[in-house]
Design a protein that fits this description.
Number of strands: 9
Helix content: 40-55%
Shape: globular
Mean pLDDT: 90
Number of helices: 18
Structural class: alpha/beta
Low-confidence stretches: 367-379
Distance between the termini: 43 Å
Strand order of the largest sheet: 1-2-4-3-5-6-7-8-9
Order of helices and strands: HHEEEHHEHEHEHHHHHHHHHEHEHHE
Radius of gyration: 22 Å
Length: about 475
């Protein structure tokens, strides 16, 4: 009880400190009291029309909706190629994005030759319905139902049932991907997971660092002149402290709702705009993220804000966006988006519904949805939460959100046979849109779709700054 109170007090104080720093930075940047200009409003409206008009086909993609049995309506886009009935690739974005994050891979003729490509908006994002809550149960049940529905639509109904399914994810989509690969491995033949920590592994690693450091500090109190021992204790806990500093925004997002809302809404959505500037990877001579042009900034913002007022009017489309999307449109849905940080998705227990258990077991039995993977890992031992499906983890070494030592330490223990870890030495967090990094990710997905011929390490040799650090 006391530990919970202490932790809650710490999170409140730290979150308030981070919010204060954000507010100060926005003030110094001259953005705190800014309002959108007419030029910005016009460019945003154009971008929203380009990507969210249901009567159009943005980038040659088709808007579609999938309605779950509970009435939740998820928006996704589809790309079908010449031989796309063979396989299915599902893309899942993270915070604060939407399907637009994946536009480079979705428009790849190479990928669409071998697979139907589907990119979904997470619940509460883009054109998808929100959920009553964002617990592990609610989110994982929803995403499992969506993937099962896509398997039925693209593998069973359109194909011969023998095609493979791949899930490609980023950020929070990857946290979901990790959990599905561990707890519902039947869903896909391979999970390609980019730019996220694996909650079970990271939590265990942090606990181990704390325990080891505590023991050394306790010993040091008995031997206070042992400078070496003190240095070792501090070195052991250092990665945890670094991660805490990098995750400061998470504490701000978990402040009481009015403060958390202010964090995202202040200064004409200053924080969102900063994220999009960082995502490009381009910097000014001073090292600051490069300012985006009007059109580029508008298209980046519409990826986060979703449809605008013009997309809820009369349309030639047979089906429209859910009412919840319309309700959150005026504010961009900031509070809805950060609920995945606030409501226990990371480590919360997932009590699968009877329907989910039955449908997953049907895939295992091979009828009516035959699982084409080898089942590698189903009978292997490993730490709690170990992945049961083959996974390829893609990590940018310069990712500002994660401390690499914690993210990758002992991760091999959690991976099953046939899995890899790919480290991009020059990449940041938004691998799917960073020019060179996106090319690497496309190569990884292409390798999977093309039957995994040859080793992934050999495929990636032409990228000089990429290293396959684990290949099980």
């Amino acid at each position: 009880m006391i530990s919970k109170i202490v932790w809650r007090a710490f999170t409140l104080l730290y979150g308030t400190l981070v919010l204060t720093l954000f507010t100060t930075f926005a003030l110094l940047d001259g953005s705190l009291f800014q309002r959108p200009t007419e030029k910005e409003k016009k460019e945003l409206a154009i971008a929203q029309q380009k990507f969210w008009d249901l009567s159009k086909s943005p980038l040659g993609l088709k808007h579609k909706f999938f309605t779950l049995k509970d009435g939740c309506k998820l928006h996704y886009v589809e790309k079908l190629g010449t031989n796309s009935s063979k396989n299915l690739t599902i893309f899942i974005h993270g915070f604060p994005d939407s399907w637009i994050l994946w536009q480079r891979l979705l428009t790849s003729s190479r990928l669409s030759q071998n697979s139907a490509l589907v990119a979904v908006d997470l619940p509460g994002y883009g054109g998808s319905d929100g959920l009553p809550n964002y617990s592990a149960n609610a989110v994982l049940e929803t995403m499992t139902a969506f993937i099962l529905g896509m398997r039925e639509e693209y593998i069973t109904s359109r194909g011969d049932g023998a095609g493979k399914v791949f899930v490609v994810s980023h950020d929070w989509g990857s946290i979901i991907g990790y959990r599905l690969a561990s707890e519902a491995s039947q869903l896909a033949d391979r999970f390609i997971i980019s730019c996220a920590v694996y909650p079970q592994q990271t939590y265990a690693t942090i606990k181990a660092h704390f325990a080891s450091s505590s023991k050394m500090l306790h010993t040091w109190t008995q031997r206070p002149f042992s400078v070496r021992l003190l240095k070792s204790a501090l070195k052991t806990i250092s990665p945890v402290l670094k991660q805490a500093s990098k995750s400061g925004y998470v504490f701000a997002f978990n402040l009481p709702s009015p403060l958390a809302n202010f964090c995202g809404r202040m200064g004409n959505m200053w924080l969102l705009r900063l994220m999009h500037r960082i995502a490009t990877g381009a910097t000014e001579p001073s090292g600051k993220p490069l300012l985006l042009g009007f059109t580029e900034a508008a298209e980046a913002m519409t990826a986060s804000l979703g449809p605008g007022p013009a997309q809820f009017g009369a349309s030639d489309a047979k089906e429209g966006y859910p009412d919840s999307v319309k309700r959150r449109a005026p504010t961009g849905g900031w509070l809805e988006k950060i609920r995945i940080y606030r409501e226990g998705l990371v480590l919360g227990q997932w009590e699968k519904s009877i329907e989910t258990i039955v449908r997953l077991s049907e895939i295992d039995r091979g009828s009516p949805h035959r699982r084409s993977s080898s089942g590698a890992g189903l009978f292997e031992n490993g730490p709690a939460g170990s992945l049961k499906a083959r996974a390829t983890v893609v990590y940018g070494k310069k990712d500002p959100a994660f401390e690499s030592k914690l993210t990758l330490e002992d991760i091999s223990d959690y991976l099953t046979k046939g899995s890899q870890v790919v480290v991009l030495n020059e990449a940041g967090h938004w691998v799917p849109i960073e020019k060179d990094s996106a090319e690497v990710l496309e190569e990884v997905v292409g390798w999977a779709l093309e039957g995994e011929e040859g080793s992934l390490k050999t495929r990636l040799e032409r990228f000089g700054t990429v290293k396959v650090t684990i290949d099980k």
